[in-house]
Specification:
heterodimer; A: about 325 residues; alpha/beta; five-stranded mixed sheet; B: about 500 residues; mainly alpha; two-stranded antiparallel ribbon; about 0% strand; disordered C terminus
Chain lengths: ~325, ~500
């Protein structure tokens, strides 16, 4: 109700003081949300849902543009050159972890985060034909046998499982795949014993259906939102390395403070909009707003942890 | 079965039929302009499907893909400039046929073959999608390695008038395919520190440059005599058309290619181009007059067109039953499904079965629509032949630039396209076909990852490829194809010693 009143007031103000609005006029042209990945993925999908609501909230056009390349870094670094606040880039903590894992020239001064709109859990699955059905069983089995592990296209997540195996001194062979869908196919076809993907992939759906075992959560959260309370996460199990997957928005650090604040407020409104929440939850996405300062803390932490992870694996 | 009955009531709505009409027309038109592709149209349309009901939205996208599959064969036949890689095989016999003055008939064969192949794969989709998908899952990296290697060798023999030059082309393609960060250790290869090259060279600028621009450059080099149906008077003379008897004669070829294409489409990632070439090669091997392939023979158009269309439809099998997108269009469709809160996968079949059946049925309806729209569009397209090259070629270059830019909204790709255009021109001067280059470029990385994964799976043991029956069978076939290639080239060398039979 309050929102509607404020929109009405804003409309009235626009009528009465057109010049006043033009002066601090934001947005003064269409906003572009850059998706640094291809069409059809989770980042693309969630942002297309958010963009429609954002259009209503900001009262101007919002274009969603896919700019894939270099694991998200190409679109990200290009968006960082646009500093009038009309170019937002969709980011994930994965892009930042990769700046460390791939030795890119990047520091926190190079980005202004607007906040995070959802976390995502990644899960380690086991094929039912393997002689174990839980995490403990996996470690016991891998101590004696060679266990083949398919990743879901994320370098970071693959490395976290590698580090886990190294900490325990067990024999887990990492086989990289290009996407969660490819990794899922390898796992569902029984070509590997264990595999890792994000929530929402074919492997996840099969696991929900009881066709795969959920061994552990390799992110810092849990699966209680989906009714699976008893899948442990790596942090609880006492491992040093874990994935922290948070989707968010960022702009160039040269974008004026007040525009950043307005965009952050707009994000909060959009992400808590019940219609948006329903649409995201329908496909197993878990919208949750996190303010920019908290998000920046997480990204900063991720950069440090990724360096540790890199060091530990190369040791 | 109750699902199927409920589905029927969902199919025949006014919105669906309008969506199919618009989708098909858009696909055919965009597909027929080299440089613009149906994939591009689908990417642009995905957000709009928000405003439709799920079925209508997804059906519209599929209709674009289907229209585009036929549309792509038009420039391949009329100008020898396939705008999509899967139409490349169609040009092998389509363009010679057009030069003979039978452009209209070539287009009609492509049209009917495309629709027939599509229908075959749609019926299979309707009947046995789920079991087929379960079988496809059993095909792992080891089997993929052998299948891809086989495809690579077969395509080389299909296009190689000069086996050694064909191999050189493959080598160039494989090298170009290594550019970018490798998937296993993320090591940069030939990226020159450029972010734009980290994911490798983009496929679209490469193939527009090699297949379309370099062909335009080559054709401009010669002041070749105008092709027969040049002015309106002789165009009226191009009364070539497909009779019912022609169709019946070509039907076995289409059926075989349709089944082959469906099988390939059920495997995610291999793609319509391979389907087209394998169908072409199978048709040639089984033909009583294999030497006529490449000179404008009807089977040489029917086979690849039925094959590539069948792949497109069958690519939906892993998507709807497992949630695994087999190609770019399927990946975009996955997004479109999810925008509507539908997650493709085993649950979709169980919970929304009626919706899936409705989707499959609408696909069959859209094939019938293609039959009509295509019929009129062919008449329009044959008129384009009459325009002078001075008008057509600049337009093609313009559309290619737009297409290359649109993939990644990046000027770098446009530059790359022109570089590949010039590169392809010189390859053609040296009589190295650009087709093996293009095919090796996109099969190479697939082969590399599949082989590396197989070796990891097998603990570094090279014999893993011989232990699986499917991969063993394909390796034997590959060896046979290579032996045949060697035999052919020796025989040709012997022949060429006598001056009367010099190769051109």
């Amino acid at each position: 109700m309050l929102k509607r009143t404020s929109i009405a007031l804003l409309a009235l103000a626009t009528l009465l003081f057109p010049s006043a609005l033009a002066q601090d006029g934001f947005p003064s042209k269409p906003i572009t949300v850059v998706i640094p990945y291809g069409a059809g993925g989770m980042t693309d999908l969630s942002n297309r849902i958010l963009a429609t609501a954002l259009e209503q909230r900001l009262g101007g056009r919002v274009d969603v543009v896919n700019r894939p390349g270099a694991g998200g870094y190409l679109g990200f670094s290009e968006a960082m050159r646009e500093n009038d606040g009309h170019t937002i880039v969709a980011v994930t903590t994965d892009i930042f972890a990769n700046t460390v894992l791939l030795d890119r020239d990047f520091t926190m001064d190079g980005v202004a985060l607007l906040g995070s709109y959802m976390p995502q859990e990644r899960v380690l699955f086991g094929h039912p034909s393997a002689p174990f059905s839980d995490f403990e069983g996996l470690i016991e089995h891998a101590a004696e046998n060679r266990v083949r592990f398919a990743d879901g296209g994320a370098l970071w997540a693959g490395n976290v499982v590698k580090a886990m195996a190294k900490e325990d001194g067990v024999n887990i062979v990492h086989i990289p795949f290009e996407s969660g869908a490819e990794g899922s196919a390898a796992l569902l076809g029984g070509h590997v014993e264990i595999g890792e993907t994000g929530v929402g992939t074919p492997a996840w759906q099969a696991a929900k259906n009881g066709e795969l075992n959920m061994l552990a959560v390799i992110t810092d959260g849990d699966l209680s939102a989906f009714g699976f309370d008893d899948v442990p996460n790596l942090e609880d199990l006492g491992y040093d390395h874990v994935v922290r997957m948070y989707y968010g928005w960022a702009v160039s650090p040269d974008v004026p403070e007040e525009i950043r604040a307005r965009l952050e407020a707009a994000m909060e409104d959009v992400v808590t909009d019940p219609e948006v929440v329903a649409k995201l939850e329908a496909v197993d996405l878990t919208p949750r707003f996190m303010p920019s300062d908290e998000y920046a803390e997480i990204v900063d932490r991720v950069l440090g942890e990724a360096a540790d992870l890199q060091g530990f694996i190369q040791e | 079965m109750p699902d199927l009955v409920l589905a029927l009531s969902l199919v025949f709505t006014v919105e669906n039929l309008i969506a199919v009409m618009i989708g098909v027309t858009l696909g055919i038109v965009l597909g027929s302009i080299p440089g613009l592709t149906a994939d591009m149209a689908i990417a642009l349309l995905v957000p709009f499907t928000f405003f439709f009901n799920p079925l209508t939205g997804i059906v519209a996208l599929m209709a674009v893909a289907k229209g585009g599959s036929f549309g792509g064969s038009i420039p391949a036949i009329l100008f020898n400039m396939p705008g999509t890689p899967q139409a490349t095989a169609t040009a092998l016999d389509g363009f010679p046929m057009r030069k003979k003055g039978e452009g209209k008939k070539a287009l009609e064969i492509a049209h009917y073959a495309s629709t027939t192949g599509d229908l075959i794969s749609d019926f299979i989709l309707l009947l046995v999608a789920a079991p087929l998908a379960a079988i496809a899952l059993k095909i792992g990296p080891i089997e993929y390695s052998a299948i891809i290697l086989f495809s690579l060798v077969v395509i080389a023999t299909a296009t190689g008038a000069f086996p050694v030059r064909g191999m050189i082309g493959i080598g160039i393609g494989l090298l170009l395919g290594t550019v970018g960060r490798d998937d296993f250790l993320a090591t940069e290869r030939f990226t020159f520190g450029l972010l734009t090259l980290e994911d490798g060279i983009n496929l679209v600028p490469l193939l527009l440059g090699l297949l379309v621009l370099s062909e335009a450059f080559s054709q401009l080099r010669y002041r070749e005599p105008p092709p027969p149906p040049r002015d309106d008077a002789t165009l009226a003379g191009d009364t070539s058309h497909v009779s019912w008897r022609d169709y019946r004669r070509l039907f076995p070829t289409m059926l075989r290619s349709g089944l082959l294409g469906t099988g390939i489409g059920a495997l995610p990632g291999i793609g319509a181009t391979v389907g087209a070439f394998l169908s072409y090669e199978t048709a040639r091997r089984m033909s009583k007059q294999p030497e006529k392939f490449g000179t404008g023979i009807e089977e040489g158009i029917a086979a690849p067109e039925a094959g590539n269309s069948a792949v497109q439809g069958a690519n939906l099998i892993p998507l709807v039953t497992l949630g695994i997108p087999g190609n770019l269009v399927a990946a975009l469709l996955l997004g479109a499904f999810m925008i509507h809160g539908l997650t493709p996968g085993p649950f979709l079949m169980r919970d929304q079965g009626h919706l899936l059946y409705a989707l499959f049925l609408t696909l069959i309806v859209s094939n019938i629509v293609i039959l009509f729209v295509g019929h009129f569009y062919i008449k329009l397209a044959t008129r384009v032949q009459t325009l002078p090259r001075e008008v057509i070629f600049p337009l093609i270059v313009m559309f290619c630039s737009i297409g290359a830019y649109a993939v990644g909204t990046n000027m770098f790709d446009v530059t790359m396209m022109f570089l590949f255009g010039v590169f392809g021109y010189f390859l053609r001067l040296m009589k190295i076909s650009v087709i093996p280059v293009v095919i090796a470029f996109f099969l190479g990385p697939l082969l590399e990852t599949a082989v590396r994964r197989s070796l990891l799976l097998g603990g570094g043991d090279l014999t893993v490829f011989l232990q699986q029956p499917i991969s063993l069978a394909f390796l034997i076939l590959t060896a046979l194809a290579l032996l045949f290639l060697g035999y052919q080239s020796i025989r040709r060398q012997r022949k060429s010693r006598s001056p009367a039979t010099m190769e051109p």
